[in-house]
């Protein structure tokens, strides 16, 4: 892939391959799809930069060798890992599997010239998480409300157009390549809300999924499908989808067998059941373990996995009912089922208990089911974080989640065996609508590979790869506008972890009471005296007690609860003094003024980079900064005015509040 054409090169611009493309390389490997990719990548780079690559038969003078590990040497590498060494002028990547060679090649690309300097003792790189997955909320048929991509902010679907799989899959191929370069190995190609047309991907339309899988396979990526729990009825014509019914089990087994005839390395199913109107096992009085296990049993003979989502809550609750707490729902539903899920069923848990807000505590379900496989789900698509019109680099948030230690011991990133992101990519020329949102996708992949990685270092890695040879002014400018952008977004939106306050439906822009009297369970309870949700065990919904210690104790009291989560866990008076020394009301005013000032500053920094960035890319970001600033001011003014009017407490600095 070159920088020309209508596809943005993202973090694989031609120049990133200069170091490998100008050398003599030797690839010793099988002829499986990923090994072919390794060879083709090198051949392509050599053509551009004058190097040479040979396969197998050794000319002894190679500067870069990629080869399979000998039987006894690869034990520590796993399926996907690789080892890197440099001795006597030769850099060697060894791997037990072909995917390891592919990841090793991209590692060398990241190192650039550094990969060919001095000596290097053997370093082993292997992914901490086995599944590193993107879920696309893409519809095949354009949905009347949600459009082609539900919560998509990057144009249409990469995979689907005009009601069917795209005939031209070049963009999907380029996507697979970008994903391999940041370590992603699984993609689910359709929305978890499975509508009528999409249901049929499982059966008579599986050929379309197979065509996509063929294009992703050379990049080490397995294809997954979202399916409806009611498939035996809507596709199979059965009178029931009861998971304990023999005919239902047989239907799933047969349908799955046919899927594997079409896609031999199919990854498995993703299921949203009994959630926001999707069908599920509750209709038959069965548990979610019963539900997941019938699909797991069908997939088991072929090595497939079912990702069963834990996003189960009452979306028709009465706002008058203060005893129901949506945050409790996933834990309450699922913890009694620990140990009942099949070994190839993975419970896919959103990182927070609510819904991808800019600030939430880590879900108490994470770590609470030691006998159940876990995947943590984050949202790269910025539904609640600026919808790719605002810059909001989420690396630090995801890193906090992955480093969180549910009982003070092992981190979430080590407990999980998968990390999943809702993809932020569409058919937009910059992939992600906002060109800087590419950093979220890249960071996701790298954190899934190594959840302990420093996200700021990953950001710098993305900057360097995307802009090879960038002058310091560009690298520093990019770092300045991205690093801290999550905190900026948090400052001008819902305060102190209280969440939502967005416009209902599309979720863009402020509406403080937009969901306050709704059935969705997302309330802030502001009145003239105070704001926040009492989730303590002593006087509130009891949610805080779902945590293990030390967190149950930390969150239980406003005295120990971290400031940034105070209003998630407690209802406090406006005059409550935070650990920061400020009152809650003054914190609200100050952060909202600061947030807008930070956007103004970022916009200024970006404007100053005009001479260093491709004009189309620069213009796209500049235009989005105008909208971000307009929107940030709207947020500031609505939130500040709302709380001034409720509380009657003036800003101690006397700034204009309307
Ligand atoms: O965040 C909410 C979204 C829905 C989405 C749901 C989910 C796919 O508003 O659009 O549906 O979560 O995660 O299932």
TrEMBL record:
It comes from the Bacteria. Keywords: Hydrolase. Pfam families: Glyco_hydro_67C, Glyco_hydro_67M. InterPro entries: A-glucoronidase_C_sf (IPR037054), GH (IPR017853), Glyco_hydro_67_aGlcAse (IPR011395), Glyco_hydro_67_C (IPR011099), Glyco_hydro_67_cat (IPR011100), Hex-like_dom2 (IPR029018). The keyword DNA-binding does not apply. The keyword Hydrolase applies. Residues 432-655 form the Glycosyl hydrolase family 67 C-terminal domain. SUPFAM superfamilies: (Trans)glycosidases, beta-N-acetylhexosaminidase-like domain. Residues 122-406 form the Glycosyl hydrolase family 67 catalytic domain. Gene3D superfamilies: Alpha-glucuronidase, C-terminal domain (3.90.1330.10), Chitobiase/beta-hexosaminidase domain 2-like (3.30.379.10), Glycosidases (3.20.20.80). Signal peptide: none annotated. This is Alpha-glucuronidase. It comes from Streptomyces fimbriatus. The lineage of its organism: Bacteria, Bacillati, Actinomycetota, Actinomycetes, Kitasatosporales.
């Amino acid at each position: 892939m070159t920088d020309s054409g209508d596809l943005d090169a993202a973090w694989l611009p031609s120049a990133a391959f200069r170091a490998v493309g100008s050398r003599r390389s030797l690839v010793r490997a099988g002829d499986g799809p990923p090994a072919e990719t390794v060879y083709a990548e090198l051949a392509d780079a050599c053509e551009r930069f004058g190097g040479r690559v040979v396969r197998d038969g050794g000319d002894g003078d190679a500067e870069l060798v990629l080869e399979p590990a000998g039987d006894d040497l690869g034990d520590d590498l796993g399926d996907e890992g690789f080892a890197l060494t440099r001795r006597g002028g030769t850099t060697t990547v060894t791997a037990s599997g072909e995917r390891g060679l592919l990841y090793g090649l991209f590692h060398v690309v990241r190192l650039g010239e550094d990969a060919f300097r001095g000596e290097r003792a053997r370093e082993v790189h292997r992914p901490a998480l086995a599944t590193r997955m993107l879920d696309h909320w893409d519809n095949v048929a354009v949905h009347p409300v949600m459009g082609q991509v539900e919560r998509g902010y990057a144009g249409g679907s990469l995979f689907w157009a005009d009601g069917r799989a795209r005939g031209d899959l070049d963009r999907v191929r380029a996507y697979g390549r970008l994903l391999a370069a940041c370590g992603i190995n699984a993609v689910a190609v359709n929305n978890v809300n499975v509508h009528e047309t999409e249901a049929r991907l499982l059966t008579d339309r599986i050929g379309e999924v197979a065509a996509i899988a063929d294009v992703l396979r050379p990049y080490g990526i397995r294809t997954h499908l979202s399916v409806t729990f009611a498939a035996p009825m809507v596709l199979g014509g059965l009178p029931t989808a009861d998971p304990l019914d023999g005919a239902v089990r047989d239907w799933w087994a047969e349908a799955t067998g046919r899927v594997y005839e079409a896609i031999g390395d199919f990854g498995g199913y993703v299921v949203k059941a009994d959630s926001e109107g999707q069908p599920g096992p509750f209709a038959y009085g069965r548990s979610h373990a019963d539900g997941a296990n019938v699909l797991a049993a069908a997939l088991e003979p072929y090595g497939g996995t079912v990702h069963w989502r834990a996003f189960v809550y009452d979306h028709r609750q009465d706002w008058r009912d203060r005893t129901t707490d949506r945050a409790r729902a996933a834990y309450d539903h699922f913890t009694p089922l620990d140990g009942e899920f099949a070994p190839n069923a993975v419970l896919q848990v959103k990182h927070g208990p609510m819904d991808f807000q800019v600030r939430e505590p880590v879900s108490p379900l994470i770590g609470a089911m030691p006998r159940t496989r876990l995947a943590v789900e984050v949202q790269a698509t910025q539904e609640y974080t600026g919808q790719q019109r605002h810059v909001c680099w989420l690396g630090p948030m995801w890193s906090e989640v992955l480093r969180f230690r549910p009982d003070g011991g092992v981190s979430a990133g080590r407990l999980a065996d998968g990390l999943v992101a809702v993809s932020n990519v569409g058919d937009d020329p910059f992939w992600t609508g906002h060109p800087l949102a590419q950093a979220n996708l890249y960071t996701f992949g790298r954190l899934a590979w190594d959840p302990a990685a420093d996200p700021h270092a990953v950001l710098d890695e993305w900057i360097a790869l995307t802009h090879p040879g960038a002058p310091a002014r560009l690298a520093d400018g990019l770092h300045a506008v991205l690093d801290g952008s999550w905190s900026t977004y948090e400052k001008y939106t819902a305060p102190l972890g209280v969440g939502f306050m967005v416009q209902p439906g599309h979720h863009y822009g402020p509406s403080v009471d937009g969901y306050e009297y709704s059935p969705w369970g997302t309330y802030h309870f502001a009145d003239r005296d105070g704001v926040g949700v009492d989730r303590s065990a002593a006087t509130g919904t009891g949610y805080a007690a779902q945590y293990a210690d030390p967190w149950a104790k930390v969150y239980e009291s406003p005295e120990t609860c971290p400031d940034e989560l105070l209003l998630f866990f407690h209802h406090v008076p406006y005059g409550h003094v935070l650990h920061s020394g400020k009152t809650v009301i003054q914190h609200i005013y100050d952060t909202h003024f600061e947030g807008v000032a930070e956007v103004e500053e970022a916009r200024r920094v970006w404007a100053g980079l005009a001479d260093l960035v491709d004009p189309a890319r620069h213009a796209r970001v500049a235009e989005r900064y105008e909208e971000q600033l307009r929107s940030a001011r709207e947020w500031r003014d609505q939130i500040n005015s709302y709380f001034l009017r409720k509380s009657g407490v003036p800003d101690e600095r006397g700034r204009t509040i309307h």
